[in-house]
Amino acid sequence: KERMSLTTQAVTSVKWSSISQFGRQGAQFITTVVLARLLSPSDFGLMGMALVVTGFVAIFKDLGTSAAVIQRNDIHDELLSSIHWVNAAFGLLAMVVIFIAAPVIADFYKEERIIPILRLLSLTFVISGLSILQQAILERSLAFRKLAVIELCAAILSSIVGIGAALKGAGVWSLVYQSLSIVTVTKILLWFSSAWRPRFIFHWLEVKLVSSYSLNLTGFNVFNYFARNADYLLIGRFLGAQNLGYY
Description:
mainly alpha, about 85% helix
C-alpha cells in the first residue's frame, strides 16, 4: 500500500507539474504577444540585458540548499531555520551587490538606461530569499498541486500587471513591474501555503551538513547558465539593446 501510495503521489505530482509548466508558458506566450504590440524592441533588449545579470546572480540565490533539503532523508527545524537565514542573508547581499555594480554593468553594455532597471530588479533577491525554503518544503512533501496553483496565479497576475503598465505607457518598466510582481505574489502565496515558519536560530554546523552537495550543484549550474546565455550577453554588449530585443 505504501509503495502504491508513493506511485500515485508521483504520478499526481508529474501531472500538476505539467499543468503548471504549460499554463505558465501559455500565459507568458500570450503576454509576450500583447507586449510586443505595445513595447519597442529596445524595451525588450534593455530587459534582456538586465536579466542576463540577474539570472546569473539567481544561480547562487540558495546555493543549492533547496535541492539538498529535498533529497535529505532527515530534516529538522534547526537545519531548516539555519538554511532559511542563509538564503535571506544572500538575498540581501545580492541586492546590495547588484545595486552597487549597476554602473559598472552599464559601462560594459554601454547603456546607462540599465542602471535603474537593475537596481529595482535587485529587490527580487530579497523577496525570493524569504520564500525559497517554503517552496523546497512543499516540493519535498510532493505538494505539486498547491505549487501549481501558486505558480499559475503568480503568472496570471504578473501578466495583468505587465500589460496594464504597458497600456499606461510605462515602456520597459512594464517588464520590470511584471518580474517584480511574479516574485512578490509567489512569495506571499508560498508563505501562506506552508505551515513551516523559521525560528530565530542559526547553527553553522547545520549548514555545513548540506554544503558539499549544494555547492557542487551550484558549480554545475554556473557552467550551464553561461552555455545557454552567452549569445544574449554578446549581442547585448556588441550590438545594443534594440538588436538584442529583435533577437
